[in-house]
# Entry
Amino acid sequence: MSVDTSAIEDVFNEPGCGRNDNKTAAERTMGCTRQLKPGEAGGGCAFDGAKIALQPFTDVAHLVHGPIACEGNSWDNRGSASSGSDLWRRSFTTDMNETDVIFGGEKRLYQAIGEVIGKFDPPAVFVYQTCVPAAIGDDIKAVCKAAVAKFGKPIIPVNSPGFVGSKNLGNKLAGEALLEHVIGTEEPDYTTPYDINIIGEYNLSGEFWQIKPLLDELGIRILSCISGDGKYHELACSHRAKAAMLVCSKAMINVARKMEERYGIPYFEGSFYGVQDSSNSLRTIARMLIERGAPLELGGRTEAVIMREEARVRAAIERFKPRFKGKKVLLITGGVKSWSVVAALQEAGLEIAGTSVKKSTKEDKDRIKELMGRHALMIEEAAPRDIYKMLMNSRADMMLSGGKSQFVALKAMIPWLDINQERSQAYMGYIGMVKLMEEIDKALYNPIWTQLRRPAPWDEAEVNRQTNIPHTDSHAAENSTAVRGHSSAAGFKERANASGRWVVGHISAAQATCAVQASE
Amino acid sequence: MAIVSTSEKSCTVNPLKMSQPIGGSFAFMGLRGAMPLLHGSQGCTSFGLTLFVRHFREAVPMQTTAMSEVEAVFGGQENVEQAILNIYNGAKPEIIGINSTGLTEIKGEDVERFIYLIQQKHPQLERLPLVYVSTPDFKGAFQDGWDKTVARMVEVLVHPVETGRARDPARINVLPGCHLTPGDLNELRTILEDFGLKPSFLPDLAGSLDGQIPDEFTPTTIGGIGVDEIATMGQAAWTIAIGAQMQRAAEAMYAKTGVRFRLFERLCGLVPNDEFIAFLSKISDRPVPLKYRRQRGQLADAMLDAHFYIGGRKLAIGAEPDLLFDLSSMLYDMGANIAVAVTTTASPVLQRIRTEEVLIGDLEDLEELAKTHGCNLLITHSHGRQAASRLNIPFFRAGFPMFDRLGAGHQLSVGYRGTRDLIFGLANLVIADREAKHQPTPDTWRSVDRDFKTVPSYPQ
# Structure
């Protein structure tokens, strides 16, 4: 087998990881990948994670070495927007066949690299290792080395066969590949005191562009965004940044920490979701740049921008308040970095019925209690069955979650909004928060809910016959249904019971069990 | 006779093909109370699951044996055992369908033996059907996974019938290829029932993935054909197989139960449906209902109306073999010129596609050939949208996956009605494209080429 075990151990021992710090020495040797449970497991593999982390580099060719399953089944499923090259949207794979499996796939890989360079002339090729070639011993590192000698271009091996672990481990292995082969290999044309790196931001639905104009306005230059709308040359020069903001620490903490260690680039963990976090992040970026030599006036200009933007958001949110009054939202986000969003939702008058805390640290949980009260509903295991239970018990009017758990809510006729990576709306920064409110409003007040919650007229008649209730006129029936349906999900349950059938909901939660398995 | 060739490239660019194991899992999804299980690392399942959810926009059951590095070396018997037990205890399935992947195939795992040992060890599993199918990722394509898996279902789940035993003359087995949608199966069911026939579909995706809000809580498939019904398929009078891929399963059925079969290689178009309806009329001994006489007339009329738009179109089509054969034949019948045909895997129907060459290749091949041939209509699955936009030609989505439009499960191509709707859909696309992009201007008539041929206002 050709798996880089030292890189994996290195990732497991990440000292920058808050969770890792809280572990005993014995626990740490176990690694940080969850024990996989056959028949109960969900989620992607390490290859999936590596590809997700790096695919947003838009001008490089991403070549997957493996049989058709790895790339053929998975390509083209994430919308990370590009301001230039569209090469990242093309899919490249060696599509190994039986002969390659028997005689080894190295030759095919080498030829494939040549073909990609010949046709598309990218600044670099990223080569992803998958299970089958790893298991038969294809040495992608050696092939990449030979290809570099032949083609005179950076060819980066990303050693991430699926069987080494989870998607999250794959994210980090991708980071290791960047640290080992790319970062620091080129020099920027010029530098400024305002150069920053953004790490762990993927520009999904182009949402980072909601923030970029503010940075532009302040004269802050993104030397490299790793990896959203990223370009190879910027990445290779990223070691010259003055400071870095780490957006997703789960995926890329190793990159931020090692860049600090190697190149002295300080980093902070921040978020652009929600008003408060956006302001704090801008403020921190300015402060760090000033500490590293940027003129002091940057601080004042930043405060002015923050004040202006916050006032605009507050004014925009005002109109939602009466419509959100008394409405409860259930948040299934994994529990990371949602606090700023929670604060904004609360400011608009929404009540948070509960949240999942699967990926939350102890501090995260403390913040939940702080924001949502001591009795905040928290759920550890976000299996669909549990989400469903929470949805019903909390009598939520709406659920916000990732796409894979949508059926838990939708099939129970409860409004739902995608706030995870597959969403098509962008919710970042100040504008994004207003957009989020708009979407919540649209979902909550869509007229379909009252129609869908009505049973078919013949079912209603059936209930009336069974329970000997005199047949009411249809208008009254409609009203009562609407009221009951609207009040809460639990209202449904009663109605469903009364008619002797599980008309909605209950059912589909479990059905969704399966779909959600591929979540985070 | 088309020449069938294979792309010589080392690097597949923009794959048309998807893997065998998920084609197998897809077949298991047409069984009631089923849990498809992929024996491989968890990414294999996760990718397939995401693909199905994006296509159908439904919850989809699929599980993994979650192979890690250690088991990949030392063998995955324990993973198979744990997976089966966990699914048995958690999901209470009526059947578990297991497909291998590339990772477990290179190890040469004897999963049939594993299953035997696991059932010996856990007597509670003895009555739970466990169907295993070998489907390495590095061979074949999605369609092959489906056809192998359905054939295996017949071999394992159908009870043998002695020859000469009385059969139920109204009972019909239908073995649909994976190119048919749940909507197609519902259409076929209606047609068969209108002839007084009682069809059993194996697999029956219409029961599980046609967008219902189910009445019962279930972590497995929500509908489809039950194991009990499959067991009795040997009592049917006929087996109807649809798509050449189903020959293997139909033969398996015949070998095991002696049920005669008739293979319909395609059910899109006037002539194939005439044959189909005539066959149903014969085996049911009933006249063709008025409804189908009217529908036939409507299809004929649709063909008349649409031939102005489809006739002469230069078509590039990329699809799995049976869908490619199905659609390209119908469009050829409508006067289209099948200029480019690309597919994923070998099949006996490829030679009979009405074009010069069929290439086993990828979407890059399709795009380049379409460009060379000056095609002005592209048909393939959703991944082809980028190629269509670069080529700036109208794009019709057909096949799996279709993740960027709604209603994939209800798209129709079978029967007179299905063909009629499909033809209208295609023709309307052409009309819309002409209106949007090819309005005549003073300049379109001004330029003439060297041979004094006028440049038409829109490409022919």
